[in-house]
Design a protein that fits this description.
Layout: H1 4-17, H2 21-33, H3 55-70, H4 76-87, H5 91-94, H6 116-119
Helix pairs in contact: 1-2, 1-3, 3-4
Length: 132
């Protein structure tokens, strides 16, 4: 099950994959013009985004827009990994690099670690695919 926002974003990505940039932008800008209520929070209406000229620019814009809608709900990692797997982006194009603002540097781990409770499960055989 998904929320109305998630359903619109799925439709927008389907338009992106069908090379229908105008259709994708119609959906994204409709969300911005009349944002749905998220729990008890009602986002303010936002200005329309300009239509990108290329498929690559549209992909970048789509995932950036989607990040703002999904970030606070912890749904971003799957999209970031999917950008690498399905859209052939490199790790440094998707994930932050360089110095971390609280000290140290960003690392290269792009998967969530298996928890200790799962490791102690006798039926757990390990992850066979650690690729993005």
């Amino acid at each position: 099950m998904v929320s109305g926002i998630d359903a619109r974003l799925i439709e927008a990505e389907a338009k992106l994959q069908a090379n229908d940039i105008a259709g994708m932008m119609t959906i994204l800008n409709a969300l911005r013009a009349a944002p749905p209520k998220i729990s008890n929070f009602q986002p303010a209406a936002m200005a329309a985004l300009p239509t990108p000229a290329t498929q690559a620019a549209a992909t970048t814009l789509f995932f950036r827009a989607k990040a703002f809608w999904t970030f606070g709900r912890g749904q971003r990692l799957n999209d970031d990994r999917r950008q690498m797997r399905q859209y052939h982006r490199t790790e440094d194009q998707v994930f932050p690099t360089g110095s971390y603002f609280k000290g140290g540097s960003y690392g290269h781990t792009i998967q969530l670690a298996v928890t200790n409770t799962e490791l102690s499960n006798p039926l757990f055989k390990g992850c066979t695919d650690r690729n993005p």
